[in-house]
Design a protein that fits this description.
CATH topology: HU Protein, Chain A
Strand order of the largest sheet: 1-2-5
Number of strands: 5
Order of helices and strands: HHEEEEEH
Mean pLDDT: 82
Structural class: alpha+beta
Strand content: 15-25%
Low-confidence stretches: 1-10, 17-25
CATH class: Few Secondary Structures
Radius of gyration: 21 Å
CATH superfamily: IHF-like DNA-binding proteins
CATH architecture: Irregular
């Protein structure tokens, strides 16, 4: 069975790039932080070790996931709110199979707080 979405391989730039990672994977061109970089930045901000920062973060993530599972919402003070929504069933289309039914499912949405919106707006 073929995957639904096929991602083409990155184009090579010449003979010297053989065996090297694609440009979009290199650290200089990446726009998001890796997990290790996030823990290190958090540790630096809190003046604790990276291992302690990871433990705190994982505990926080567990509390948020538990809140979403039990209450359907989780508040992230200073950032916003995560909440569950139920997506209605719908009809989808496929070039090979025609129409098919996409079942209802739950999804997580994020609503930013005023301070975060103001920061992003500049």
């Amino acid at each position: 069975m073929q995957p639904f979405l096929q991602i083409p391989a990155p184009a090579r730039r010449g003979p010297d790039s053989v065996g090297k990672r694609a440009d979009f994977l290199e650290k200089e061109n990446r726009e998001t932080m890796t997990q290790a970089e996030t823990f290190k930045a958090y540790a630096t901000q809190m003046e604790i070790s990276a291992a302690q920062a990871e433990i705190i973060y994982r505990g926080f993530a567990a509390v948020v996931m538990e809140s979403l599972n039990e209450c359907g919402a989780a508040t992230l003070p200073g950032l916003g709110k995560l909440y569950l929504v139920t997506r209605a069933p719908r009809k989808g289309t496929s070039p090979r199979g025609g129409e098919y039914e996409v079942p209802a499912r739950k999804a997580v949405k994020f609503r930013a707080c005023k301070a975060l919106k103001a920061l992003i707006a500049g």
